[in-house]
Amino acid sequence: MSLIWNNKISVSYFGEPHDSVIGVTINNLPSGEYINIDEISRFLERILPKSMGIRKSRISLPRIISGIHKEYTTGAPLCAMIQNNDIQEEQKQDISPQIRIGHADYTGTVRYKGFNDVKNSAVYSELFVIPLCFAGAVCAQILERRGIYTGGHILQIHNIKDNPYDPVNISRDAVLSIRFKDFPVINDRRGWLMLEDISKARESGETLGGIIECASVNVPCGVGSPVFDGLKNNIAQLVFGIPEISGLEFGAGFSASNMIGSQNTDRFYINEKGYTLTKTNNHGGIIGGISSGMPITLKVSFCPSNKDAKGIFSTCFVPSAVPCVESAVNIALLSNMVDYPNFCLR
To answer: Which neighbouring-strand residues pair with 276?
Structure first.
């Protein structure tokens, strides 16, 4: 089992879902970066949005045990431990091991020769979105100090759709206007309809999936590498560490297969300020594994949870996954930018 994502920056998780403490270690962060702990806390609170009626007792403020001194990164590994507040309550329950349809119980049992803890596997990936989001919140602060902002919104739940981002003209303000909404959508009326649908599903014992759209703005051209270590590759590795993922597309994604070449090609031009841009953004801000200077745009689809799921996100994980997707993108971006010219000079 791999709980390590290793690039120029590495992120590793530790602990197991039934432990009282889980945690994360981030290696190779640049030193001298100011980290606002209160902002990290606000970011983590988004995992359990108020609009979903999920109690927040499971998430406590991480305890940072190394890597930050007097609110600045030291250059040493940043290690944080997160208290699993409800674990004592769960351990009192009499949960017998069983193989559940649609879960990873069977595949995990075969892979680990029966030594895996089946009764706790249901919440395994759920709990590890917290370390992911902690790491993503740290990376976001470092990037935003350079003017690079990443934000997501719920594009669709079930068959109800939100307004999409403008892939060419999305701005920092458009990203920030959604970030701390109780329900992260652009069109609030559509959000209310989504919440009604989730409520109906909960009452009937059903579950729902959906799509999250995410964008990063002000990423300079030239970030990333071609072939196996491309920027898309790195983002995808981290995104697929989020539970319930069923698909990922960048830019026009699968819809590009319905286009002819002249429709799909993004033509370059130089704007009035002398910047080289493209008139359209079907490539999603990344060409040949390297950023183009256009907004980086992606969509992530989530399948419905299994109907017998008992986790905290059991009816619909999508609203809680918005900061998770942002975190995956932030970690990948920072890892690819630490050696970008002048990035560590402020």
So the answer is: 270
Highest mean pLDDT, choosing among 29-43, 93-107, 111-125, 303-317: 29-43
The enclosing domain of 248 has a CATH number of 3.60.150.10
Whether residue 9 lies inside any domain: the answer is: yes
Give the pairing of strands 245-250 and 210-217: unpaired
Domain assignment of residue 278, yes or no: yes
**Are 207 and 309 a contacting pair, CB within 8 Å?**
yes
Place of tokens 């206007």: 177
Give the per-residue pLDDT at 56: 55
Neighbours of 328 (CB within 10 A): 32
Distance (Å, whole) CA 159 – CA 177 = 24
CA distance 290 to 310: 41
| b/e burial code for range 6-31 (CB count within 10 A of at least 16 → b) | ebebbbbbebbbbeeebbbbbbebee
Quote the number of domains for the chain: 1
Q: Which amino acid does the sequence have at 53? A: G
DSSP class of 224? B
Asked whether residue 346 is domain-assigned, the answer is no
Residue 52: pLDDT over 60: yes
* Nearest Cα residue to 123 out of 282, 256, 321, 311: 311
Q: Where are the beta strands (DSSP E) in 114-193?
A: 149-157, 160-161
Question: What is the DSSP pairing of strand 286-287 with strand 72-73?
Answer: unpaired
In a domain, 345, yes or no: no
Compute the CA torsion angle 249, 253, 254, 256 (nearest 10 deg). -170
Cβ neighbours around 55 below 10 Å, total: 10
Q: Is the pLDDT of residue 90 over 50?
A: no
Question: What is the Cα–Cα distance from 110 to 113, expressed in whole angstroms?
Answer: 5
Task: Print the domain residue range for 100.
Answer: 4-337
